[in-house]
Amino acid sequence: MPDNMKTKPRTNCLQIRDACLWWFAALAAATLSAGDWPQYRGPNHDGISTETIRTNWSVEPPRQVWKVPLEPALSSFSVSGGKAFTMVRRPVDSGQQEFCIALNADTGAELWASVPLDIADYPNGGVGSDDGPRSTPSVDGDRVYVLTTYLRLYCLSVTNGAVIWSRDLVTEYGSTVILWQSAASALIDGDLIFVIGNAANQSLFAFHKSDGTEAWKGQSDVMTQASPIAATVAGVRQIIFFAQSGLVSVTPDTGSVLWRYPFPFSTATAASPVVGNDIVYCSAAYGIGAGAVRIIDSGSQLTANEVWRAPFTSMNHWATPVFTNGHLYGIYGHAGTAASLRCLELATGNEQWRKSVVGMGGVLFVAGHVLVLNEDGYLALVKPDPTGYVEVARFRALDGSQGSDPGLVRCWNVPAISNGRIYARSTTEAVCLDVADAAPSLKLNPALLSAGGTFRIFIGNEDGSPLDTNRVANIDILASTDLTLGLSGWIKLTNPIVVTNGQLQLDDPQSSNTTRRFFRVEERP
Q1: What is the Cα–Cα distance from 204 to 169, expressed in whole angstroms?
Q2: Which residues contact 232 (CB under 8 A, 6 or more apart)?
Q3: How far apart are CA 488 and CA 152, in angstroms?
């Protein structure tokens, strides 16, 4: 066969593979930049954002993208697919009702409101005229899920808010509604959605998110306002509920109990459990305190051993702390009393420091900082330093200027972070702030075919500037031969990376063994 006939197949293959590379590079940039915040306290239920945001607020303050009035609610935001979802209380002919609404994430304009989901009646007081729904919607693909104050679970269309399916836990299972009603948000993990429903022998529930059919139910634990979390502890994936009996951990697929931690109390709490390595933390206000339990895999079962208990002193009401580098950072106290931001060592429960804050609020962890939203609408960036309180920046995010009750500010929730923006709300208004990091975006540059028949990949800055070598350690390059496999089909390349001419260079030896190869680049914070 002539030499030119021998080389033609390799040339055609290179053209196809290059086209695939460029097409997917554009697709990946669009997909990965979305930075969805699809559930209460983020995609991993831990209040931790992996985004890199701007923290030099004294030089470049957060830029207000929009601020809009909202009807009352204590809900937070979920953000996905260019929409921001939350709950509100609105009047209808039959009285006050709870609604899920979707806002345009870029403008704040309301895109749709669901049908009335439940009565908006909060008879136990403690908030005021701006009382409203307590839970936060959960988003998954083209659907949004809502658990109402009176234990109705809805699956709605992301497109227009239409009801796809619903379950009424009170009517169907005999669940009872506790004082101050439910504030728990529905938890999505895998193909299931988890809620706590408060009925004899059927208080913990899992439903198939596709059609609402029951996956399992069980236990008789009395519910609290706390949202469950999903976590991998001691190597085992589990769903952890915080009930009035204490912590209850179950297997996601069957609901069988993995372990329990007795932590009895009878009053309300809305602070979720917090996982730090193999330790699980919980806390309740009204004189209860906090405790932590270490989960150990003994081979045949998981065991829970209490590592410390601090009655009365360390109390989270509904502000769930965040965990980083062995310490908890969160707002302690309860409504009507002096609140403080505190740092606790998770392994011992020892308090490292405290700083008075204005009322209740919420905390997240982002870009190496604790992000604090206090009751008066101020955002603060705080260093996670166990040796003392170090405030980096402060910004007034909400001031009541857009609400129906001018000057009323009550932020009893946690913000959301998505695509370089902070979404925060009070009971009367909401704001979107741009805090996107100014670092140039990464770009996959054209690959070259090396002499050995493998691809040589180049990664640089989108604007053509030299890549900062300090970013190299946080850059991952992944490859796949089949996009239909989803995330499981991507393999992180571990070949040596060379910095040359302001770009990263990596040779992919596996590319010589396949006819198609896709690449993507990710940068960790």
Answers
A1: 11
A2: 238
A3: 34
Percent of all residues in the chain with a pLDDT value above 90, rounded to a whole number: 64
Residues 139, 79: Cα–Cα separation, whole Å: 8
Q: Coil, helix or strand for 60?
A: coil
Distance between CA atoms of residues 86 and 58, nearest Å: 30
| Cβ-contact 220, 243 below 8 angstroms | no
Cα separations (Å) of 217 from 137, 150, 201, 316? 22, 19, 8, 28
Residue 337: which residues within 8 A CB-CB, separation 6 or more?
none
Instruction: Give alpha helix (H) positions in 33-72.
Output: none
Beta strands in 346-496 (DSSP E): 351-357, 361-366, 369-374, 378-382, 391-396, 416-418, 421-425, 429-434, 442-449, 455-461, 475-480, 491-492
CA dihedral angle for residue 236, residue 241, residue 245, residue 251, rounded to 10 degrees: -40
* Residue 486 near residue 470, CB atoms below 8 Å: no
pTM for the full predicted model: 0.79
320 touches 272 (CB < 8 A): yes
- Secondary structure (3-state) at 7: helix
Give the total residue count for the chain: 525
Which of 439, 441, 483 is closest to 459 using CA atoms? 441
Contact 281, 292 (CB under 8 A): yes
Which token pair is 363?
Answer: 């905390």
Rounded to whole angstroms, the Cα distance separating 173 from 400 reads 41
Q: Quote the radius of gyration of the chain (alpha carbons, Å).
A: 25
For residues 144 and 114, is the Cβ–Cβ distance under 8 A? no
Architecture of the domain whose range is 63-434 = 7 Propeller (2.130)
Least Cα distance to 202 among 218, 216, 214 occurs for: 218
Kindly state the DSSP code that residue 15 receives in the 8-state scheme: H
> How far apart are alpha carbons 33 and 437 in whole angstroms?
12
Integer Cα distance of 524 and 362 in angstroms: 24
Whether the CB-CB separation of 269 and 225 falls below 8 Å is answered with: yes
Note the pLDDT tens digit of each residue in 421-464.
999 999 999 999 999 986 677 888 777 766 666 778 888 888 77
What are 340-355's pLDDT values in tens digits?
999 999 999 999 999 9
In degrees, to the nearest 5, what angle opens at C-alpha 92 toward C-alphas 91 and 96? 45
Give, in order, the Cα–Cα distances in Å from 144 to each of 170, 241, 505. 21, 21, 42
**Is residue 109 a contact partner of residue 100, using CB atoms and an 8 Å limit?**
no
Element (H, E) at 26: helix 3-32
Q: What is the pLDDT of residue 495?
A: 80
Count of CB atoms within 10 A of residue 124's CB?
11
- Parse the chain into domains and list their residue ranges: 3-33+441-523, 63-434
